[in-house]
Amino acid sequence: MDYYKYWGKTDSDGGYHLLVYHSLDVAAVAKVWLKGNPVFVKKAVKALGLSEAAFTEWYLFFLALHDVGKFSVTFQNLQPDLLEKLQGQRSNDNFAVRHDQMGWQLWCEHLCEQVCSYVPGLDAEGKDLLRDWLSIFAQLVMGHHGIPLAGISSGRKLFRK
Fold first, then answer.
1. 140 falls in which pLDDT band (50, 70, 90)?
2. What is the pTM of this model?
3. Which residues pair with 10 in a beta bridge?
4. DSSP string, 75-101
């Protein structure tokens, strides 16, 4: 996949910012923000039971994924001229599902298992718990437009007695 063939932001003058750069910009700004907010970091670390380094890495990873749904052709076709310019294609696909929802679906159907596979040494219960925790992070960042994402699990394993 050529990540440099997808726009992430456009302006009224026809300019655009590539999606890969937008995603990295968000993570970079968040990294600076975290450094300036040590109380937040300490509370998050304590609440999640993670090291500061692990929390920071996961937090920035998910913020970089916040617009992953914009990689869909339906989103890219919101600017058909850019779709043709960047990818050399045209599409008749309509934008019926919001990009945040598409990102969540991509997480649920593909990304969660791929990310979890990089964490070694977990038994079945550990993998289930990891999936649940990571999915909470994914929900928080992919649902960044103030509209609840459809298909959200209850977090049953995290909150059982």
1. confident
2. 0.84
3. 16
4. HHTTSHHHHHHHHS--------S-HHH
